[in-house]
Amino acid sequence: MSPIHYLCKNPSITFEMIYALVQSGVINWNLGGHTPLHDLCINTSVTKEIIKILINNGADFHIQWYSPLHFLCLSHVITTEIIDILIQNQANFNLQIATVLHCLCQNPLISEEMIKLLKGSNADFSIKSSYGTTPKDFLPNHLQKLI
């Protein structure tokens, strides 16, 4: 495992630490299908600034079938600001068999603001997973009405 993988898993991660390692050029180093961004997206200490530095330095959040974006959308740190950063960087919420949008709609932290932001970016709430479910199927009733 590379130093950047360890750092991205560390709950004490800081912007300065990640910035120093990003300069080493191992941002998409793949270890068994997981990149540092995968590890970062399940770290409960991740911030929008840390996500921005990785994305701005070439981190690929569409790598592998279950991408870092999937992990992030299932995490407890997802916010409207983070979703907006991802949209601004061309995140594809409709990619994969079980889409990132499916994951986000299962997250108990999903909000009305997030739904509105995603709708504005043309996220497809009707796309079916390999199980025949749509992202909308996972939303609470009060949020389904926004679709």
TrEMBL record:
The keyword Repeat does not apply. Pfam families: Ank. PROSITE patterns: ANK_REP_REGION, ANK_REPEAT. Keywords: ANK repeat. SMART domains: ANK. Signal peptide: none annotated. ANK repeats lie at residues 32-66. This is Ankyrin repeat-containing protein.
